[in-house]
């Protein structure tokens, strides 16, 4: 291959290709961070925007790219590749795309470097911007979060497409001819996920199949002979001890399974940032979105209480949110495991059931466990262990108590007034000697029948049991009234006191017989007038009905 | 010099028309816009920076990239809105097309006015379908998204051919090649037009134009 190019042009071309490679990596990685990218146009040239495009430089990404290139440039047989892969919360990973920047032998000797090549490289970057939003991995990366994250890896050398599964597709972004060869930018992407990409990614047997094959067909990256292993030099030792790649990878996987989720998060990101110049970067999988967020995550660690009450460490749901953006000023929400997979939600239900049976001489106090689950932001780590132990008991208590429960609408000989003043549910079913109107649930609705029955049950049972409020009935004796979610010894006015004070509200006036009788008569008298008014407005009603049709 | 012409076709639901057209037009203009030129002495110039931003579509599972220029976006939205209204009011089977034409101005001597010589024309043909159920609409969202992905790949393929582009002009001629009226970016001179096709497949306007030309030719 003859080069007629002069030395200045050669220098310019090398510089252009180098920065083009760095910008290419930036565009690809930023497109997989999971957020929309927005940069501003500037009419006055700043001189620092390569290819006249506003592409931000994420320092870590530039660093990784420079390390992978190691001062070399894409040449024939030596391509720069950016591998995009997906890693699930269980630790399974799968390659999604390989972006390749290659050089081939076809030279264009006539072309002008500083003008045409530069502008064409700029156009190629614009094409890359457009194409990165169009491959299936884009939609997946926009939805990354607590179930999976998108990782990238940069390597230099021969392109490895084995991990993409069968039937992968290729899209060519573009080419630019130069006197030294033709630069080609293309993307090979997996299509097996294509039908899933538009919906939420979920683990299904085919995906598991692919992942298993992935690990069988393609051994662990560090053992691949393709990657330049000559990089384990101490030349760039800045005094920090670097874990080898395998170790850091191991740290990633083991920390997920044994540590609480929050610590997992920080371990991963901290491990990354404590090693600014990792030893073998071409095999280091870097979490996409964790890059800009180490300080955010560490500051929010204190307020994050993993409410995971899991039996085993392996059962912890993956709450890590790597959802990222470039803007580090917006703290990202950490996913509370409470919203995940319903682990802490479960204790609430037995708590209800248990609480409903307070009057059954139950001295079980689920308050600790339920309290922890309900307020995951508490920093009381002791409650975690308490609640994990206490979880077993509500179930047992629940089981036994339901068998002994006696309903609130037991048939008892009580007079009418007292009955309506009791606020018992389904009052209309109790035998009473009321007039028709009072018994009609439409006119005289039963008192809040649609609230949670356990709570209601406790209130009404208390009422009928003659608690400390001084009711007339002492059929049920309250020994110890301990409502859920409360601690008697903390506040003077607590939930229990509230219950006792307000469990017998004054009777509604419409429920009393006299007033009821009066209003009944009034209603009957006013009926003809009402009918006359309605008849006048018949046309309006008809028109209204027609609009509904 | 011949004008190269590219034709794209899409089938969309009524409410997807705007976003689909904007996606295609913005993708083309992304490639056909540069930063603002700043001419210096001795005929050299420097170029401003073009920013980009992602736009999510509301009615299509699709995201496209456009240049960060609100002026340009407003201009496109205006004409796409007019197209959408014309399509809706046409009452036909919902066939229409928009043309994005890049042209150069060639100064002519008096009394002839400047000539506009197109060098690239992008035509997007739209077929509007009406869907009955929500499930069909959901499928349409995804299908149209995939179709637009294909269109973007087609556009990029054409752009990558590096075929004719106007020469970079001197300062005196920059307005013959570029639209210098925007504040932040500088696209090539372009114009957008649209036609609503009637049931016979011929557009009303072209029929009229043909009639007039025929009468003049006599």
TrEMBL record, chain A:
Pfam families tied to this protein: ATG13
**Job of this protein:** Autophagy factor required for autophagosome formation and mitophagy. Target of the TOR kinase signaling pathway that regulates autophagy through the control of the phosphorylation status of ATG13 and ULK1, and the regulation of the ATG13-ULK1-RB1CC1 complex. Through its regulation of ULK1 activity, plays a role in the regulation of the kinase activity of mTORC1 and cell proliferation.
Q: Which family does it belong to?
A: Belongs to the ATG13 family. Metazoan subfamily.
Q: Where in the cell is it found?
A: Cytoplasm, Cytosol; Preautophagosomal structure
Give the protein's recorded name: Autophagy-related protein 13
Enumerate the Gene3D superfamilies for this protein: HORMA domain
Q: Where is this region: Disordered?
A: 366-393, 437-471
Q: Does the keyword Cytoplasm apply?
A: yes
- One record GO biological process: mitophagy
Against InterPro entries, the record matches this protein to: ATG13 (IPR040182), Atg13_N (IPR018731), HORMA_dom_sf (IPR036570)
Composition bias (Polar residues) maps to 375-390
Any one GO cellular component localisation term in the record: phagophore assembly site
Alphabetically ordered keywords of this record: Autophagy, Cytoplasm
Autophagy-related protein 13 N-terminal domain residues: 94-195
Q: Where on the tree of life does the source sit, at the highest rank?
A: Eukaryota
From TrEMBL, chain B:
Q: Which GO terms describe its molecular function?
A: protein kinase binding
| Family membership noted in the UniProt record | Belongs to the ATG101 family.
Q: Which GO terms describe its biological process?
A: autophagosome assembly
A single cellular component GO annotation = Atg1/ULK1 kinase complex
The record's InterPro entries line, in alphabetical order, gives: ATG101
Keywords from UniProt, A to Z, are:
Autophagy
Q: Where in the cell is it found?
A: Preautophagosomal structure
Q: Which domain of life is it from?
A: Eukaryota
Protein name per UniProt: Autophagy-related protein 101
